[in-house]
Each structure stands twice: as C-alpha cells, then as structure tokens.
Amino acid sequence: MTKTGRALRLARLFKSHERPLFLVPLDHTLTDGPFTDAHQYDNLLDVLADNGVDAIAVHKGRLGHLRSGVYAKLSVIVHVSASTKYAADPNYKYQVGDAEECLRRGADAVSVHVNLGAVTEDSQIRMMASMAEACDRVGLPMLAMIYPRGPGVKDHPPLETLLHAACLAVDVGVDIVKLPLAGCSVQDMMQIVNSCPIPVLAAGGAKVSDKDFGTFAADVMKSGARGLAAGRNIFMATDPAAKVREIRRILHSNYLSVLRTPAPTLSSQNSPLVESVNGGKRQ
After folding, report:
1. Could you say which of 3.40.1190.20, 2.60.40.3090, 3.40.630.30, 3.20.20.70 is the CATH number of the domain covering 5-277?
2. DSSP designation for 245
3. Strand ranges (DSSP E) for the chain?
4. Within 10 A of 263 (CB to CB), how many other CB atoms are there?
5. pLDDT tens for residues 72-82?
6. pLDDT, average across residues 180-198
C-alpha cells in the first residue's frame, strides 16, 4: 500500500521502533535573541548532525541558510509560533507561518506552541487547530509544544494540567506532543504517556547540571515517552558534541530496557484515570 506524504515524513522522524526521537529545538533565537554567532551556529548544526541528533526545530527563515549536508542527516521541523521576551505578554504565541509555505521551503514537519492557561489561550488553541487541518491537507506532520503556563493553571496541580495538555493535542488532531515533564516523577510521566495515544516528547527544560540532565533523560525513557526535545542543555553545553553522544547513549539504553520489559496489565477498575473521571470512585 502506498504511504501518504505525512506517513513518509513521520517515518523520517521516527526512524525505528527501537530508536527514541532526539530533537534539538533551536527556535529560541526568535524569542530570546542569538545564543552564538552565525559561524558557530553553522558549526553547531554539523555537530548535531554528526553525533546522534535526529531532528532540529527552527523558524522558517533559517531554512534558506541550512547547508545541504544538514538536510541529508537531520529532519527539519519549522516552528510557526512566535513571541519575544520584550512583549507585554510573552505567553501570547501567535502564528508566523503556514503549512504550504513550510512545505515549499523544505520542512519535514511543523510545530506550534500553546500556553495552556494563558490569557490568550483561546486564540492559541484556534491557531493550533487551524494548523492541524492545514498540515493534514498538505501532508505535513505536526508537533504541538503545549505548556501549562499562565494564570489559568496556577491553582491546579502539574499532573492534572499535563494530562489535560496531552488530551488537548490529541483532540485537536496533532501527530506528536511535546510536554514539560521536568519535575515529574517517573510514575507521573508514565501516567501522562499512557493516557496519550500519540507520541509524547519531553521538553528538556531550563539549563541544569550534567548529572541532573542525564538523570532526567533516563527517567523520560523509563516512562515510555517516545523521545526528548532538548535545546539549552545541548547547545549551551561546554562540549555539545560530547553532550549529544552522552544523551543519545542514555536515551538508547533506557528506551531499549523499557521495550524489553513486559507492560503491566491494568484493569480499567484500577486505573487512576478512570478514578479521576468517576470522581475518585471505582466502578
């Protein structure tokens, strides 16, 4: 059976059932400004491509500056949401690209950012829904980066909002969801992953120590998540090449250990999700 363009591009991202996705977002430059000069940026791309990264996320204007060798080794996701640190409301993410334009420029996939609980949550969800439909029309996979962040979530526990964020991505029609799982226990991560029928990627989060980040990467894999999307902890490392190789090894070894472990059989009566839906009462 002939595969659709969307399926082919997803297969380019997820190369194997036994290989977790290692994504390095580089879209921070639009939000925060440059983290290095143009020459070192090009060198960083070569380092990522040659040491075990599967994909990068950039804004559309960067596509015209990528060397052909980068495209040959890395999948390229184009981020179409924006805001800068100078904005009156930096949590307001607005659209700066469309699916057809991204496809024309050479994107393998598109990503959007939604801040769940933000004052402008309504417009951000509409943007995500519109992009999901547009991506389906042109055959591009779509990644949603959904962060519980804003006044609407301040009185709700992180697990509740992350479970809701995962549901939101599924219900709107997204292919992959990236969630900020840092600070969650492995058990909470597992509950989030098991609630979600689409691949879950863990956001790398703020810059932390090498030891803490390695532990986090291992825990993410133990939870059953499909991959890791880490930016600052990679490109701000003293030796990014060594850091990429280290994290690739951690991801691979812990992901394979999960694949080899039989999944526990849980009846719906014992499911914490069912208990939550039924007001804490088992049926």
Report:
1. 3.20.20.70
2. H
3. 21-25, 55-58, 75-79, 81-82, 94-95, 109-116, 142-148, 176-179, 200-203, 227-229
4. 9
5. 899 999 999 99
6. 97
Give the tens place of pLDDT for each residue, 145-184: 999 999 999 999 999 999 999 999 999 999 999 999 999 9
Strands 81-82, 94-95: parallel, antiparallel or unpaired by DSSP? antiparallel
Angle, nearest 10°, between helix axes 158-172 and 186-194? 20
> What is the share, in percent, of the chain residues with pLDDT greater than 90?
84
Cα distance between residue 59 and residue 183, in whole Å: 28
| Among candidate residues 41, 76, 84, 37, the one with its CA nearest the CA of residue 60 | 76
Going by DSSP bridges, is the β-strand pair 109-116/176-179 parallel, antiparallel, or unpaired? unpaired
Residues with catalytic function? 27, 147, 178
What's the pTM? 0.89
Domain ranges of the chain: 5-277
pLDDT digits (tens, 9 = 90+) for 240-267: 999 999 999 999 999 977 766 655 544 4
Q: Where are the alpha helices (DSSP H) in 3-154?
A: 5-13, 28-32, 38-51, 68-73, 99-105, 121-138
